[in-house]
TrEMBL record:
It is a peripheral membrane protein. Residues 20-257 form the ABC transporter domain. This is ABC transporter domain-containing protein. The keyword DNA damage does not apply. It is found in: Cell membrane. GO terms for cellular component: plasma membrane.
Length: 264
């Protein structure tokens, strides 16, 4: 018999202000269940980190939030609007959803034939922003992530860390309500990882709502309001970083953390 998820969240006195609310989410690929009855909320201004082994369903969960993957069952609600329910997309405006939810991928996904600044401008142009306004905002954002000096470089001329920071600028360009990060440092060397985590720390300090999948457990401990351990497509344990990472209640969580420390 499957034990219920262990939750160590403090009881909130104020009503939830969830930017992302996921209820009963399930997803299968070729008959294999990769998400199984997942329930998760990300409140405005909060940072939620999702941890767990590779292949545990974390990336699929992220992709279901902005409908890059279609869930089989359950409900996805973004910024107060139900966008997917029981296998059907019910979002009335997918373009608005894309503006509301920014996403930073593992592999950057920059257009190789466009310069750094053009990659950031393109997202805004597609959303209907005036060209000059889009260009000015792109420059501001590249400066914010400390790659303005590389604005005219093509992706192949950028380091991995620079490419990921351009990708963060692109995700910020449409003024999203929440940013999704899918293992943003997994392809980076230690120096580039520090650069990208530095930018993410600044976003956290500025109050950006973030849902991130990460193997950087010290970083998750530092910036997160809430940590979620996913294993086998289910949420096994969730709560405050100090509870989940330092004093986990579930044996499976303890096993995962022990294997992480051994590998580190």
């Amino acid at each position: 018999m499957t034990e219920p998820v262990t939750t160590t969240k403090a009881t909130a006195s104020a009503p939830s202000d969830a930017v992302v609310r996921i209820s009963g989410l399930s997803k299968s690929f070729d008959g294999r269940r990769v998400l199984d009855d997942v329930h998760l909320e990300v409140d405005r201004g909060r940072i939620v980190s999702v941890i767990g082994q590779s292949g545990g369903g974390k990336t699929t969960l992220m992709r279901c939030v902005n409908l890059l993957e279609q869930p089989d069952r359950g409900t996805v609600e973004v910024d107060g609007e139900v966008v997917h329910q029981d296998g059907r997309t019910v979002c009335r405006d997918l373009a608005r959803l894309r503006r509301t939810v920014g996403m930073v991928f593992q592999r950057f996904h920059l257009f190789p034939h466009l310069t750094a600044v053009e990659n950031v401008v393109l997202a805004q142009r597609t959303a209907g922003f005036p060209e000059q306004e889009a260009l000015e905002r792109a420059v501001v954002l590249l400066r914010r992530v400390r790659v303005a000096h590389r604005a005219l470089a093509l992706p192949e001329q950028l380091s991995g860390g620079e490419q990921q920071r351009v990708a963060i600028a692109r995700a910020l360009a449409l003024r999203p309500e929440v940013l999704l990060f899918d293992e943003p440092t997994s392809s980076l060397d230690p120096e580039a990882t520090r650069e990208v985590l530095g930018v993410m720390r600044e976003l956290a300090a500025d109050g950006m709502t973030m849902l991130l999948v990460t193997h950087e457990l010290p970083f998750a401990r530092e910036v997160s309001d809430h940590v979620v351990f996913v294993d086998g497509g289910r949420i096994v344990e969730e709560g405050r970083p100090e509870d989940v990472l330092d004093a986990p209640a579930r044996a499976r969580t303890r096993e995962f953390l022990a294997s992480y420390r051994t590998a580190s």
